[in-house]
Each structure stands twice: as C-alpha cells, then as structure tokens.
Amino acid sequence: MLDFGFDKIALIGAVALIVIGPEKLPRVARTVGTLLGKAQRYVADVKAEVNRSIELEELQKMKSQFQSAVQDVEQTVRQEVDSATQALNQTWQDVSNDASSSSYDPDTGLASPPPQYRHPKKNWRLKRGATPLWFKQKAGVKRHTQSGAARVARFRPPGRT
Predict the structure, then answer these.
(1) 104 SS3 class
(2) Does a structural domain hold residue 27?
(3) Is 107 among the domain residues?
(4) CA distances from 40 to 9, 29, 44, 54, 128 (A)
(5) Domain span at residue 77?
(6) Which helix (H) or strand (E) holds 105?
(7) E strand or H helix that includes residue 49
(8) Average pLDDT for residues 92-104, to the nearest whole number?
(9) pLDDT of residue 34
(10) Bridge partner list, 105
C-alpha cells in the first residue's frame, strides 16, 4: 500500500484545514474515515474470497485424487474377490463331482447321506474318580455320602444324646 509518514500526513492535514476550513473539517474527516474503512473491508473480503476459491480448487483436486484412488482399490478388491469366488466354485465343483461319483447308490439313484453325529458319551464319574485324593481333600470335595441322620449325629454337640 501507500507509505505515509507522519510528516506527509501533517502536510495533508494542514492543506485540508486551509482548503476545507475548520468548520467542515471534522465532518469531512469522519466521511473519509468511513470510506477508508469500507474500502479496507472490501479489500479484505476480496482477499478472503480469493483464498476460499483457491482452497476450494485444492480441495476439489484432492477429492478427485481420492476418488480415483478409491476406484483403483475397489477394482483391485473386486478382481481379487471374483478370482477367489471362481477358485472356490471350481474347488466346490471338483469336490462335489468326486463325492457324487464315490457315494452314488445305483439302487436308489441318490447319494448316500453323510454319517450322523454321535455324542462322545463322556463319563463324569470316571473323571471324578481319576482326581487324586489329596486334591479332593484340599479342594473340599465330598468323598462319602451321608444320610441326614448321620450328618446330625456327626455334628451334634458333645454331651447331648
């Protein structure tokens, strides 16, 4: 902008005082001040608008770069998924062809059903019997069963019959 020193401003003020006069000078100074303020705000708004448009262009460039990167990744993933699906389907067809040829029953015309699930029938009494006696005593596991009367007799205070 323009470079005004104190001496130049004093000279302009003295000329304005002589030309305009002391009565109108405050009103003219106020008007010039408001006009300068409006001009500065206008220049600041224009600068801000230019900066916003530059940032918007940069953001649009970044957006287009990200979109192209996303499309590349999407195409790569789609190709990988398609190839994996084709491999899985091929394997499935090979397995189903092998299974249908080996388990085909010519009498019924159907493939034999897969074997049924059988529960392993684990014996918990056998497991409890395999626990060492010292561990049962330490853990407080009951080793013997008692009837209710035997328990009462066992824990009855001495001296009572």
Answers:
(1) strand
(2) yes
(3) no
(4) 19, 16, 6, 21, 93
(5) 6-101
(6) strand 104-105
(7) helix 25-102
(8) 69
(9) 94
(10) 110
Residue 109 within any structural domain of the chain:
no
User: How many domains, in total, are found in the chain?
Assistant: 1
Model pTM above 0.70 = no
pLDDT per residue as tens digits for the range 112-150: 667 787 776 777 666 666 777 788 888 887 777 778 888
Residue 81 Cα distances to 3, 67, 88, 94, 111, angstroms? 68, 21, 10, 20, 32
Whether residue 16 contacts residue 25, with contact meaning beta carbons closer than 8 Å, is answered with yes
What average pLDDT score do residues 12-39 get?
86
As a whole number of angstroms, the longest Cα–Cα distance in the chain is 134
**CB burial of residue 78 (10 Å; 0-12, 13-18, 19+):** exposed
Amino acid identity of residue 113, one-letter, is P
